[in-house]
Amino acid sequence: MRTIVVTGAATGIGRAAATAFHTRGDYVVLTGRRADALTKAVDGLDERAVPVAFDASDPDQVTAALSQLPDRIDVLVNNAGGNTDFDHDDPTDLAGVAAAWRANLEANLLSAVLVTTALRDRLQPGGTVVNIGSIAADKGAGAYGAAKAGLASWTVDLAAQLSPTDITVNTLAPGYVADTEFFRDKLSDDTRQTLVDSALTRRASHPEDIAATVEFLASPGARQITGQVLAVNGGERTSR
Ligand SMILES: NC(=O)c1ccc[n+]([C@@H]2O[C@H](COP(=O)([O-])OP(=O)(O)OC[C@H]3O[C@@H](n4cnc5c(N)ncnc54)[C@H](OP(=O)(O)O)[C@@H]3O)[C@@H](O)[C@H]2O)c1
C-alpha cells in the first residue's frame, strides 16, 4: 500500500486526487486549513483516509504538523493554493501591493516549498512529487501567475535534487477547472462561457481530469517524466 499526502485536499482538485488514490487502495493523508472541511472530505471513506489540518504556507504550522504526517511517503501532491487576489480589492498603496503579492507567493509557491522541504527525507525511492501549477503561469495573472511560474521554475531545481534518490518531480498546469472553490462564486456566466469556449475540447476541466493525470504521474509508466510542466487544459493553450 502506498502512502499519499495531498495538500489542500478538502475541496476541488485536491479532494478528487485524494479520493482517486484512496479508491486505488492507497493510504491518503488529506491536509488543509479548515478542519471541518477536511472532516467532510473524509466522511464516507475508511481509515485509509486521514485528515491533518495545517496552513501549508506557515512554517510553524508545517513543523507542528510533522508528528501527524507519515514517516514514509510515496506521493506528495502540493495542491494547496489559489488566487488570493480574489479575496480583496486591488490595493493602491505600496504596502497593500506588497501584502497582496506576498499572499499569492506564500499560498502558491512557499506552501509547496515548505511542505516539500519538511517531508523531503520521508519521500521514498520510486516516489513522486506533483505540484499543481496553472495555465496562469504562461498566460499571466498578476501575482498569482507569477507565483505559479515560480513553482514551475522550482520544479526543475527540485527534480534535479531528488533524481539521485529516484524521486520524480513535475508540475501539472490546469486551465479552467469547474466544481472547485477557486473562483469563490465570483465567476460570471459570461466569463465561464469564455473560458469553456477557449478550450479546444469546448468544455471545462473537472477535478477528476486533473486527478487522473496526477495518478498517471505517480504510476510506474511515468518514471521517465521529471522536471516537466504538463498542461491539462483541453487545448486552451497549445504547445506549438
Ligand atoms: N480551479 C481552477 O480553475 C484552477 C486552475 C488552475 C490551477 N488551479 C490550482 O489548483 C489548486 C487547487 O485549487 P482548486 O481549483 O481545487 O480550488 P479549491 O477548491 O479552492 O481548493 C484549494 C484548496 O487549497 C486549500 N488551501 C488553500 N490555501 C492553503 C494553505 N495555505 N494551506 C493549506 N491548504 C490551503 C483550501 O482549503 P482551506 O481553505 O481549508 O485551506 C482548498 O481546499 C490550486 O493550487 C489552484 O491554484 C485551479
Task: Provide a brief overview of the structure.
Helix content is 41%, strand content 18%.
Rg from C-alpha positions?
17 Å
By CATH reckoning, the class would read: Alpha Beta
Our measurement of the CA-to-CA distance between the termini, rounded to an integer number of angstroms, reads 40 Å
Strand order of the largest sheet: 3-2-1-4-5-6-7
What does this structure look like?
The structure is a single chain. The chain has eight helices and seven strands. The protein has a seven-stranded parallel β-sheet with strand order 3-2-1-4-5-6-7, sandwiched between helices. The chain has 240 residues and is an alpha/beta fold. The protein has one domain (3-232): Rossmann fold, CATH 3.40.50.720. Helix 1 packs across helix 8. NADP nicotinamide-adenine-dinucleotide phosphate (NAP) binds at residues 7-8, 10-14, 32-34, 37, 55-57, 79-82, 107-108, 111, 132, 134, 174, 176-177, 180-182.
Strand and helix layout:
Elements: E1 3-6, H1 12-23, E2 27-32, H2 35-42, E3 49-53, H3 59-65, E4 73-78, H4 94-119, E5 123-132, H5 136-139, H6 142-162, E6 168-174, H7 189-197, H8 207-217, E7 228-232
Parallel strand pairs: 1-2, 1-4, 2-3, 4-5, 5-6, 6-7
Helix pairs in contact: 1-8, 4-6
This protein binds NADP nicotinamide-adenine-dinucleotide phosphate.
Question: Keywords, please?
Answer:
240 residues; alpha/beta; Rossmann fold; globular; 7 strands; binds NADP nicotinamide-adenine-dinucleotide phosphate; seven-stranded parallel β-sheet
